[in-house]
Amino acid sequence: MLTFTIRRLVLAVPTLLFISLVIFLLLELAPGDPMAQVPLTVPPEVKEKMRLALGLGEPTHIRFFKWLVQFFWIEPQVFIDWMTTKSAIASILPDTDFYTPCGVGAAAECDLRILSWQTRSPVMDIVVQRLPQTLWVVGMAYIVGVLIAIPIGIYSAYRQYSVFDQAGTFVTMIGFSIPPFFTGPLLIVIFSVYLGWLPSIYDTTLKVVSWDTFVIQFKQMVMPVMVLALQTTAQISRYMRAAMLDNLNQDYVRTARAKGLSEAVVVMVHVLRNSMIPVVTVIALGMPAIFGGAIITEEVFKVNGIGSLLIGALFANDLPMVMTLTFMFAILIVLFNLIADILYGVLDPRIRYD
Predict the structure, then answer these.
(1) Which residue range forms the structural domain that includes residue 325?
(2) Which pLDDT does position 95 carry in this prediction?
């Protein structure tokens, strides 16, 4: 398994390089001009100087190479520098060599970093500021969705064609069919406009310091979490049900029952473990997918996270920001593919990649 993991990590390098090239070329071919939002009163020669200042006067391959150096070399150095200054090592060894030209303080404004065309601030700094909001909403929605979907799938398969199974099938079909841009406004109309129970706008400046602020935070997270968790629950519960039905009719289940094992042990130990193998793929690969759904959900509920950041960058033709965010999504997909393959071997000892 270790050999397989190392081999996959090595293979991920050219894969990510190719993905980054494709994303960069697609953004180059996309219509739009970063100077479009500049006032018309600005003279053309000033606009041209601004374009050159953004690096648009250089050839495409040079700009792509510079972005690779910035993303894979400069930004990791800045992160190491930041971690060093935040750790106890910095106080014990103040003369450590971990500090880089693009470090903290005044050097943090180093032009070698990936800078947003819209704000002229380092892209990764903005991403780090927005990321906690997205992780709170997306992470909580995914945890809630998985915790609800697995029991529903197990019981629906065990009680096939029962009222519970038919009701679960109906709800999951709704979850599959209705997109977030419809369920989001629908929940806002019901719970915010008519009932007045929940806030329609997510307050990202809220800090939980007391029970009252915790209640406010809980209320504003309910609707965006419900929207994202609905799709997760619908997808995973269907896969869980299908996998359980396939294993409940296997010979080893009849053998386990013939040996006198209790029904709970047969279902929750033997059948569940084998059924989780295909479901692991859905759970692992669903994490990058739910980030895509969060882009729409964050825009609906005004969550100041990664999704709204990407939408704003697209409208402003902020190519460095769009390039960085989309490539981060690609990294998530490659990473969770690897995690899914590793979990295969953990759940089923018969699966080996040597």
Answers:
(1) 123-347
(2) 46
